[in-house]
Amino acid sequence: MSVQFATARSTGFRLSALALAIAVSIPVAAQAQQPEVVDVIGQAAQLEQALDDQRRANTIKSVVHADAIGQMPDDNAAEALQRIPGISVERDQGEGRFVRVRGLGSDLNSVTINGTLVPAPEDDRRAVAMDVLPSELIQSLSVVKTLTPDMDANSLGGTIEVESLSAFDHDGLFYSLSAEGSHDDNTGKNSPKLSGAFSNRFSIGDGIDNFGVAAALSWQEREFGSDNVETGGAWDFDDGDRLGKLEQRRYDITRERTGFGLNLDYRPDEHSEIWLRSLYSRFKDDEVRQSMVTKFADPQLAGELSDAEVSRKLKARTDTQEVKSFVFGGKRQLGDWGVNAQAGYSEAGEKNPGGIASAAFEGDFADVGYGGMRKPQLQAGQNIYDPSNFSLAEVEWEKHRTTDTEKNIKLDLTRDFYLNSMPSRLAFGGKLSRRQKDNDLDVWIYEDFDTLGFSAEQLNMPGFTRGTTDYGLGRFGPAISDNAVKDLISGLNRDEFYDEQESRINDFTIEEDINAAYVMNTLDIDDLRIIAGLRYEGTRMKAQGTGLDENGFFANNTSKKYDHWLPGLHGIYQLNDKTQIRAAWTNSVVRPTFGQLFPGFVLDDDEAEFGNPNLKPLESANFDLGIEHYMGRAGAISAFVFYKDIKNFVYTADIAGTGAYTDFSEAITSVNGDSAKVYGLELAYSQKFSWLPAPWNGLLLNANGTFTRSDADIEQFDPDLGSMRSRSISLPGQSDITGNLTLGWENDRTSLRLSANYKSDYLHEVGSVLDKRYDYTVDDQLFVDFSASYFLRENLQVFFEAQNLTDESYYVYTGKRRYNSQYEEYGPSYKIGLTLNHF
């Protein structure tokens, strides 16, 4: 009595027309009907398939699909996601990296690959850098915004689901090979990229095409750079707008990405399936950062001149991030019963085998100042650009390794039955997951070189230079040679310079064991589908680190357990065959980041800065209500409202003057806030204008906007009042407005797309709980991209892309927009390439 759930009832959320690939082609004037190729590939086909998935889903979600030739619409997973409703991207060096959902910070989301959680390579974060995943390895991306009880509850904004290529995504033999070259406008450098994907089905035993093999490979080496000027928020607002420090930076980076995936599928009969999914991705950065730090004798106004200490600094090291994921599973339908079992192993890590964290050459100068506030310019004489006025003061050498592993096993059972003639499905199951984050840092600090037998001439900067720094925001001067610095310290006994404090305090292990179980029932009552259930998650956390006080080093170990019962209720009502209403009440729990839980600390007299392994997890009750209407090819319109009631959100505060830190002048740590509210509206529209006369019948439009507000109260002890003082803030990382607009056009040979992505400013970090003038805010950003492709032959395509056409910068300000904290610009980039395919 296996129940078949009606597609119309199952229709899932098309929450928005994933503003992703829509744009495209030169129609043939006499043709009223689109050529057949458009039904197979192109922006409209991508969007149509994504909308179909969203419509049938039991959850509110947005989807991005690869097209028939295996191409995602953007270079990496983060940039592919950024065009769907409610999604914005945190960029690093101009590339999309971390994903924020509904304006909420990226650490409040989770990422899965083929159903298993992806850990984070960075030592302090939970957020997964999505640019580690090349788009060639991905078949589809989904952002689930309302969780059902059978899903992990560890996301507040949404769960990002990555599905890699399967041989059953195509009929028979499929392959796609691409080669491209890109140009970075900032550096003037050109970079190569190669990628390919393959899949085919084979017959095993008595079956026909029942065994599938799919593989994908991607390699890219990209040279790029950026120019930066920042104050770090070193403003003194109590005596006019005075600045204490100014830093200029130049980044030159060679980034190499390598990705590989191999997937095996076996379907012995129509009721059974076994699969093995594997994915490996490596992200390697060779980074050289030249900087000049000016510390004024006293904070001063723009245009004033005074004495200053100037440091010319170098950072030169190689960081490699790796993500590995393996999933083995199977499912079987036994009459009315269904069984689905899966085991997963994921590992993410970051490794620096040893490099220059900082090499500083110092000098003292008179008559130094600055002009401007958003992009402050250094004002100084010629002597500050003469390397002979600087001497080597310190070299910091660093070796670092972070490993984050997640192992899990889960079992899901379903039972189809009728309840008073109404189709129903009972689902229940459980999951065991074991996660461990290890961080190992070793630091060597070389200083006091004059006591080591080096002469003043040997330490003078001219012997360490290699030309002039290419800096686009003003004058900079000579560049420091990393090889010269390495040669100097290579002859020293490194054991004598080992920094035990920095090395031991930053080492930690955090274990997180989660046992989960759920029960859920789906019931169809005519045109209404109801999904109700309950999830249990029991968490055990252990943190092991090292503390340092006046008595020396000591072990700082913390262990805690907590339980959560998380009910959920979803409703989907089919108004007609094209329109449906969705409503959901869900509950989620998000653990603090590893940086916030960090167990190491140093008590230095009356000052301290440390993590807080005793933090409570964030708990949120979430409410969603919306309507979606589907119309024609790649056409949909939707509107959703949402509300989140959050407890125990986390922020940074100075707890000096309270509890055990009553006699401290400063004690910076992470603390739990009481409650926060998030509410918003999502609107989305997409359409292919097929009914228009040629050439306008190739037009596509995709637009969406998300309007979000949040309110949270933070508090801190005020020594002047002798009591606690509070104020209201927006949640860190939350933009009030995110929006996308994509205009496309396509026919059987040509595809064009012009897209814009916008996010409003957001609170980056609370600088001072007691004084909002020192808060750090990221300014709004608008990125405009253009892409075009043309089929030279049926299986040969040429493509062109231009990114960041408006040369958008990254700007963080302190308090008010005119006060710089960080300004960085990257310039546009361009690429051109060829794709050969068979499908």
Automatic annotation (TrEMBL):
Keyword Transport: yes
UniProt feature coiled coil, ranges: none
Sequence ranges assigned to domain TonB-dependent receptor-like beta-barrel in this UniProt record: 378-805
Signal peptide as annotated in the record: 1-30
Keyword annotations from UniProtKB, A to Z: Cell outer membrane, Membrane, Receptor, Signal, TonB box, Transmembrane, Transmembrane beta strand, Transport
GO cellular component, as recorded: cell outer membrane
TM regions (residue ranges): none
UniProt domain TonB-dependent receptor plug: residue ranges: 55-159
Membrane topology: Multi-pass membrane protein
Keyword rRNA-binding: no
Location relative to the cell: Cell outer membrane
Gene3D superfamilies attached to this UniProt entry: TonB-dependent receptor, beta-barrel domain, TonB-dependent receptor, plug domain
Top-rank lineage group of the source organism: Bacteria
Predominant place of localization: membrane
Pfam families noted in UniProt: Plug, TonB_dep_Rec_b-barrel
Family assignment from sequence similarity: Belongs to the TonB-dependent receptor family.
PANTHER family given in the database record: PLUG DOMAIN-CONTAINING PROTEIN, TONB-DEPENDENT RECEPTOR-LIKE BETA-BARREL DOMAIN-CONTAINING PROTEIN
UniProt protein name: TonB-dependent receptor
Source species of the chain: Denitrificimonas caeni
